[in-house]
Amino acid sequence: MKRTKFKTGILAVVFCSLTFLFSGDGNSIYADEILTDTELPVGRFSFEEKTEEADDEDYESVEEDDVAEQSLLRMTGISADDWEKYGSDYFYEQLSDEEKKYWDDLDAICEKYLTTETDAVTTNTGTYRMKAISGSTLEKEKQKKVLRMFRYSKPQYYFLNATIYTITYSNKKVSMIFGIYPAFGKGADRMEETEKVKAQVDTWQKQIDECSTEDEKVQTIHDLIIQKVEYNHDLVNSDFATENTEYSQSVYSVLCTNKTVCAGYAQTFEMMCNGTGIDTVAVTSFDHEWNKIKLENNWYNVDCTWDDNGSDNVGYIYFLRNDDYYDTSSSYSKKHHAEESYWEGYLPATEMDSVGSPWISVNENASGSKIGMSCYNKEAEIYYTTDKSNPVTSGTRMLYQSDFLWNSSEYPVIKAAAMEDGKHNSAVVTKCLHNYNASILADAACEKAGTREYTCTICGNGYMEEILATGHTVEIDPEVAAACETAGITEGSHCRVCGKVLVEQTVIPATGHTPVTDDAVAAACETTGLTEGSHCSVCEKVLTEQTVIPAAGHVPVTDAAVEAACETTGLTEGNHCSVCGKVLTAQNVIPATGHQWNEYKESGKIKRKCSVCGKTETVGTYLDVKKIQLSKTTYAYDGKAHMPTIKVTNTAGKKLKEGTDYKVKKPSGRKNAGIYTVTIVMKGKYSGKYQKTFQIVPKGTVISGVKAKKKAFTVSWKKQAKQTSSYQIQYAVDAKFKKSVVTKNVNNTKKVKLDVSKLKAKKKYYIRIRTYKTVKVNGKSKKIYSGWSKVKAVTTKK
To answer: Above 90 in pLDDT, residue 743?
Structure first.
């Protein structure tokens, strides 16, 4: 409901309303309808057509079962959900099977948008549209016809705008679908708006359901729409410049914004009538939209837009009228009610007319308020009630014959309707002594006015008035100082309530760096130096990087060897740096050479004598060797020589002594990666020769990065070329590398990256790496491996 607001743009409506002229003696004289060529509001926004190329994946695959289910539900009168009943199948039933299939596909996609949080498709220009339809063989012009009929038959899909997209594919097929208003492109946002639409529909439906006849229900729907909204002249005058936020071509403009044009009036009327069970369609001319409705097996025209005269008095001139009336009442009406060509052959005949609504006048004289009633149909009879009942069906109705005094305290509401044989009854008109209660429908915001509704406690009629905008609540946005490299911003302000920026913050340029010198550092024998550099004293950022000066290197001096004796150790030759004194080559201890024993038996004992120094000793009884162990069998290459210690025990469990019971022949080298053999030669009371091996494996490496790609990944690692022949990479689908393990060898030690492809999409893989070197053992090649690196994981892309 709305308050009277006479504006220049809508005065024309008043001139086409039923009018009373008054004679000199004060009696009311009814004048026939004043029908001229005065312009009444139109405002259908013509479809805008766009073409867009799309990927072959850009279409909605509508399952045949879904379409079959929808067709079955439609045939049996069962709604797929609470929304289906608000649309019309009148045009659908006249289509071919192929056209129906395209309609069903459109319906399935729109129903998905209406009932789920599915996001719409973003177009190449950043707007939104429906998903395209796959595989239709329907030619383009027929698609367009079905698309238009669908749009005017399914008003519940409020998110559709007036843009038609022709989607072209590489296979030369096309799919024509509708655009979607920007505010409804994201599914989560759209679901919130859907709830608002349904809430208003449900509120109205409760009022409609209170009516006892179809006539009452239709008139209630007609009046609810007109009383709620204002015609949006500003939008039409701007050539629909703000249509993306006004939604005038959708029921949303009526149900949720209170401003609309003819498209909003007509589609909302269609939606509520069909939701009430009364078959109704919307129809269009080149610039206007109205309705056709079926009552008692007869079809009528209804034009809510032209019945909205901008005041509390709802008009009924264009309510339940036949085609002849629309074509003959004025040339302007005929022009703007001439249906577009694609409706030809599909529209119902509207031959039966209705009686024009009566007019109730109140004339004040000395005896009180006198009620008069008139109707432009001279043959019509006017019936009225004073107990708020329907004058068409009520048993208390009275036939109007002459003016009568109005006892408003006893019966404050008078309802009247005109009736005539061969015509549909008129709409019911009401005269009331209003008693209004006020309630706020929408609070005022900073820049947006609110709405206060006044409702009559007697008849339920009412109006709305605007609540002035509150204005902004200013909050200061503090200044942010600029830094060396980052800009700052000046002080600004915004509204604490709505968040709007009131004073924009402008950029303060960065201040630049304050450099400080970083002194050079001289290089030493083993430690590197640094060149001179600089950094910022404010933010500490390095401005001139200090580069590394290589170490100077040592100046070696020889340390002479010391010869070992039988029982005293010696030293190998070594060297040290004459500058810093660091030992460069350590002098290794040369074990005592040991005696050169010659065993002999004497007095039941085993004795021996050294052939070098002549020392003699008793050996005792002879025992055999039981076990020989190395303290360590594997070393990682570190550039140093390695030699495990040796433990030899006899059969009595006694640990034997090196040099006494055995001597060790160490393998040469023992620095580089390889397999080394230690020879143990028994002596004294023991005899025999034994060999044990240990290995120096290459130094391992680590994975430095893994990058996921489409059905692939790239692994990179830290270079490790010393004493290394190759890298070995393994990847698997489980972290323990128990199944589906793939091994890749990289024989170029300079290479630090490997691309692995032909994998499964969106699959998690585990990756590890190690180094190895190929060495010769007894003339044969053998690989020795480092330990595995830590495992990294990566998930391939789709």
So the answer is: yes
